Predict the structure of DUF2909 domain-containing protein.
Amino acid sequence: MFLKTLIAVVFLAMLASLAAGVGFLLRDDSTSRRLLVSLKIRVTLAALLLALLFYGFFFGSLGEA
């Protein structure tokens, strides 16, 4: 149950980073680095999400209901 909650939290954090990136894209000037930082965070969260999913399926936590 903890793994499923952690996966949901990471996914919601990815969505929040995506929303922040859109806001930075629309508001900031061309010299701002906040959009790049948002992208780095989102890529890191995506890698973490894939690792959690792999862990869950490999060890059977997510395989069968």
Observations:
- The radius of gyration is 15 Å.
- Residues 2-58 form one domain.
- The chain has a mean pLDDT of 92.
- Residues 57 and 63 are 5 Å apart (CA to CA).
